[in-house]
Specification:
Blueprint: E1 2-6, H1 12-21, E2 26-30, E3 43-46, E4 72-75, H2 77-85, E5 89-106, E6 121-132, E7 137-143, E8 150-153, E9 158-161, H3 173-184, H4 193-208, E10 212-217, H5 221-234, E11 238-244, H6 252-262, E12 267-271, H7 273-280, H8 286-306, E13 311-315, H9 320-323, E14 352-354, H10 362-371, H11 376-379, H12 399-418, E15 427-441, E16 444-458, E17 464-466, H13 471-484, E18 488-493
Parallel strand pairs: 1-2, 1-3, 3-4, 4-9, 10-11, 10-13, 11-12, 13-14, 16-18
Antiparallel strand pairs: 5-6, 5-7, 7-8, 8-9, 15-16, 16-17
Helix pairs in contact: 4-5, 4-10, 5-10, 7-8, 12-13
The structure holds xanthosine-5'-monophosphate.
Function: Catalyzes the synthesis of GMP from XMP.
Domain GMPS ATP-PPase: 191-381
Enzyme class: ligase
């Protein structure tokens, strides 16, 4: 594997993604909390950082831990750090070095630069520049304005690049990473979804033996794939619980439960809708609603798990981005956060936690699911919030309002699927507004509810843009909703981006 040392750059996770796309396993560790060295680490990458090497509190590391023992690649801050620590000069850039640049010279004999053409576009993003290099260092690539765009240290396998090979704007960036990882470090490209399934299942068998595991399924990708891996490892000793909180999509409980059973999972569906509705009665504040939903979930889950005698473990679908938070400026305390799907679990549940996906990114979770032949309907599903329709019904929640919103949502989502638009948007849903408006149907005046449709494009949900759905499609969906859903006489489409709006309305 490759060890990535994080100095806090926003791009560190992207380096990891690129390494894994080359079918090589890698892990990110913060510079101030380094892992034990093991024989399977074949090379090290120093990431970028929002800091300048010239700052008094710039992130520091003992470079001799790795240098000369293993191939080492410094990226951006990593490059400046290695140069600066060894007597090179790093100064504030006189001209802005952000954005696209072209390589005007490349050392074709350097293994890092193998097959990288002249004029290859690279992506720069740095405020400091390497003004001069120490003696044993030699330049292996330059751009028009940056002489030291890449360098190596003579007599050792240490390389550094000023630009960002991990972003797609660096056209040959992936090739540079491949040169480092495959040619220089000698990593075998055998970390595939199939290999992950085999090794994880073997590991889980060893870790869990005959123990019983409880897992809460949500219908989403992560918990489903985690369950499938555990199922392969321990079969009937995995007890899955799928709670109907009365806030799921139309027919979702039955259809998802059905596909879980087809997958061979030992799953119990628990219809607890009335408990959720009772706790939610009269609540209008979004946070109060979230808390109420979280509380009932914990109660129901706790009650159900007590029925599984002798359970030792709690399975969770935690994924890699939940585990590593870039150290950024916050320091090591921000590196790990515990993750619970809905509201957290009570302290008195003394189960040990098993998280088979904790090293995977979301797209890797899907690939692993595909390699286990899981239902594409589950794998390609849009994200759906834990509190479900509870935060899409603005104001208080009643069973009646849930039924109306389920119908509206069903027409919208089915429409997206039928028009081949579902996969083009990242998330979609409908909001029931606490507003009535006047309409006219036939000869009659109506005074009924307004719904808002929301569809967004996004990469990770942190930022999002409203999806530019075709007008004809919106028109068709609006007609269907107003004609078929009793109680709704007006449909609007949300054209706000995040930020400043959020994806959900509550
Ligand atoms: P916002 O509305 O903050 O949503 O832009 C970003 C993503 O998070 C989901 N979301 C939630 N998921 N519990 C969840 O499990 C919640 O309370 C919650 N609130 C928002 C939202 O659906 C979107 O994908």
């Amino acid at each position: 594997q490759i060890l990535i040392i994080d100095f806090g750059s926003q791009y560190t996770q992207l380096i990891a993604r690129r390494v894994r796309e080359l079918n090589v396993y890698c892990e990110i560790h913060p510079y101030n909390n380094l892992p034990e060295m093991t024989d399977d680490i074949k090379g090290v990458i120093f990431s970028g950082s929002p800091h300048s090497v010239r700052e008094a509190d710039a992130p520091q590391i003992d470079q001799n831990l790795y240098r000369k023992n293993l191939p080492l690649l410094g990226v951006c801050y990593g490059a400046q750090y290695l140069a600066y620590q060894n007597g090179g000069e790093v100064l504030p850039s006189e001209i802005r070095e952000y954005g696209r640049a072209k390589l005007t010279s490349v050392d074709a004999n350097c293994p890092l630069m193998k097959d990288i053409p002249l004029n290859s576009q690279v992506w720069m993003s740095h405020g400091d520049t390497i003004a001069s290099l120490p003696d044993a260092f030699e330049v292996i690539a330059s751009t028009e304005s940056v002489n030291v765009a890449a360098y190596r240290i003579k007599g050792e396998e240490t390389y550094a690049i000023q630009f960002h090979p991990e972003v797609t704007h660096s056209i040959d960036g992936k090739r540079i990473l491949e040169n480092f990882i495959v040619d220089i470090c000698g990593c075998a490209q055998n970390w595939t979804p199939d290999a992950f399934v085999d090794s994880t299942v073997a590991q889980l068998k060893e870790q869990l033996g005959e123990d019983r595991v409880i897992l809460g399924l949500s219908g989403g990708v992560d918990s489903s794939v985690a369950a499938m891996l555990l199922h392969k490892a321990i079969g009937e000793n995995l007890y899955c619980i799928f709670v109907d909180n009365g806030l799921l999509r139309k027919d979702e409980f039955e259809s998802v439960l059905d596909s879980y059973k087809h997958m061979g999972l030992n799953v119990k569906g628990v219809n607890a809708s009335s408990k959720f509705y009772a706790e939610l009665e009269g609540l209008t504040d979004p946070e109060a609603k979230r808390k109420a939903i979280g509380k009932v979930f914990v109660d129901v889950f706790d009650e159900e798990s007590k029925l599984v005698e002798n359970a030792k473990w709690l399975g969770q679908g935690t994924i890699y981005p939940d585990v590593i938070e870039s150290v950024s400026v916050k320091g090591p305390s921000a590196t790990i956060k515990s993750h619970h799907n809905v509201g957290g679990l009570p302290d008195y549940m003394t189960l040990k936690v098993v998280e088979p996906l904790r090293t995977l990114f979301k797209d890797e979770v899907r690939r692993v699911g595909r390699s286990m032949n899981m239902d594409p309907n589950i794998l390609n599903r849009h994200p759906f919030p834990g509190p479900g329709l509870g935060i899409r019904i603005l104001g208080d929640i009643t069973a009646d309002k849930v039924r109306i919103l389920q119908e509206v949502d069903h027409i919208f989502i089915n429409g997206l699927k039928e028009h081949g638009l579902y996969e083009q948007v990242w998330q979609a849903g409908a909001m029931l507004l606490p507003v009535q408006s006047v309409g006219v149907m036939g000869d009659e005046r109506t005074y009924e509810k307004v719904v808002a449709l929301r569809a967004v494009t996004s990469v990770d949900g942190m930022t999002a843009d409203w999806a530019h759905l075709p007008y004809e499609f919106l028109q068709e969906v609006s007609n269907q909703i107003i004609n078929r859903v009793k109680g709704v006489n007006r449909v609007v489409y949300d054209i706000s981006s995040k930020p400043p709006a959020t994806i959900e309305w509550e």
